[in-house]
Design brief:
By secondary structure, this protein is α+β, with helices and mostly antiparallel strands. The protein is built from 18 helices and twelve strands. Helices cover 44% and strands 15% of the residues. The relative contact order is 0.18.
Length: 423
């Protein structure tokens, strides 16, 4: 059988979960987290990629863990977020799920609902200074299944010099103001705004939240993005394109390492993350030296800063529960989080790290930490793994073609309802 992202849903189905995990769904067959941490365990991670990441994990983080837990051996399976879903699918099908998994925001409900993850003690939620909005995606049905590590925020970066030249004294506080400013800032081959140099799914979600909307009902059983806010968010993209203020075809390929439209002066505003600051330091330090880059939280009916990131959790099937739990706690400890954040130019998920030299040196990290009260997270339903894959291809025809915003959102709503009906 070909293993794809779609096959993950079957792998997690109630009728097959027992076979794939080697025990009855919902049973507590995994090793107890009580007692001494011993044994050989495995870690699946989509971060710490590349030579620098591997050197950090295997040269610093894991040796520090082994110093405290000398009777535990850890093997690491490196992957990327693009391949992570398939990796987990393959592991489930083979009955070899890693003891510790690092997964994305929004992924907890799908896995926790099928008893793939071990519940963590609530005491871990208060051991460090987590922002509650950051901790929320680690829960399902009121129970804690993961701990946050590093976060990826979505904010709007802008060129202060472009604003000054246009006589704009402060960032927009509504979609109407954003559209008007973008139109005013558009000059020649310069776009007023580049919203699309982040993933279209995350881009639309940020605008949805700012419009006052939400993704799903509190119980995860009904899509709520099909209302006014979802349509308004997508319609704004069409309006910006109609004004000539944004161009989907001119987006920067975020993973290619190329200079962004904002750096090159080809856009006055751009949806971005904290990693942009590191890119500026390496490629365009003069923009930092001259203080030409600012940031603001997108807002309309409410301020909204989409906050994703990486969560660490324990497999419910681990035969070395104490060792796995110890590694989860170590990967979510302040020192580990700070090291990982530095390596990836991401946002540490702890209040106590706000005043760190690293946070202060990356102005977009510092900005994100100061605005965590506006954090919003994607996901919220056990059917998320199927739905998330359909957002971009369903909305893209409205952004680049003649499909109406209302019909695209309605189609996405039908797909979401169908996916939810199967959980």
């Amino acid at each position: 059988m070909e293993l794809t992202r779609r096959s993950l849903l079957a792998a997690l189905g109630a009728s097959t979960a027992a076979a794939l995990t080697g025990c009855a769904a919902g049973s507590d067959a995994g090793g107890s987290a009580d007692g001494p941490a011993t044994g050989e365990i495995s870690l699946l991670t989509p971060i710490f990629e590349g030579a620098d990441g591997k050197r950090l994990l295997e040269g610093e983080i894991l040796p520090a863990f082994r110093k405290k837990n000398p009777d535990v051996k850890v093997s690491v399976d490196y992957t990327t977020y693009t391949q992570l879903n398939e990796k987990i699918t393959t592991a489930l099908a083979g009955g070899l799920l890693p003891d510790v998994l690092m997964i994305g925001v929004g992924w907890i409900p799908p896995f926790a609902a099928k008893k793939v993850l071990a519940e963590l003690p609530e005491s871990l939620a208060t051991r460090h200074g987590y922002e509650e909005r950051v901790l929320e995606p680690s829960r399902y049905d009121g129970r804690l299944y993961a701990l946050p590590t590093v976060m990826a925020t979505r904010l709007v970066a802008y060129r202060k010099d472009h604003f000054a030249a246009a006589g704009i004294k402060k960032p927009p506080t509504s979609f109407a103001e954003l559209r008007a400013m973008a139109k005013e800032l558009t000059k020649g081959d310069r776009m007023g705004i580049d919203p699309y140099s982040i993933d279209l799914r995350q881009c639309w979600e940020t605008f949805l939240f700012a419009a006052g909307g939400s993704m799903f009902s509190a119980d995860g059983r009904k899509p709520t993005f099909t209302g006014r806010a979802g349509v308004e968010a997508l319609q704004l993209f069409k309006d910006l394109s109609a004004d000539g203020s944004a161009d989907y075809a001119q987006k920067t390929e975020a993973d290619a390492g190329a200079a962004t439209n904002l750096q090159l002066g080809k856009a006055s505003m751009m949806m971005a993350g904290s990693g942009l600051w590191k890119q500026l330091q390496e490629q365009s330090p003069e923009l930092i030296e001259k203080d030409l880059i600012g940031a603001f939280v997108l807002r309309d009916r409410k301020p909204a800063m989409l906050t994703g990131g990486t969560l660490v959790c324990q497999s419910a099937r681990s035969q070395h529960g104490a060792a796995a739990r110890a590694l989860v706690e170590h990967l979510a400890a302040p020192g580990t989080i700070l090291s990982a954040a530095k390596q990836r130019a991401t946002v540490p998920g702890l209040r106590e790290l706000r005043s760190s030299a690293y946070a202060k040196s990356n102005k977009l990290v510092d900005f994100s930490l100061r605005n965590l009260g506006d954090a919003c997270a994607e996901g919220g339903t056990p059917a998320w793994m199927e739905i998330r894959e359909k957002i971009k291809p369903t909305l893209e025809p409205a952004v680049v073609g003649g499909k109406s915003a209302a019909s695209a959102i309605a189609e996405l709503g039908e797909l979401a309802e169908s996916a939810i009906s199967r959980i």
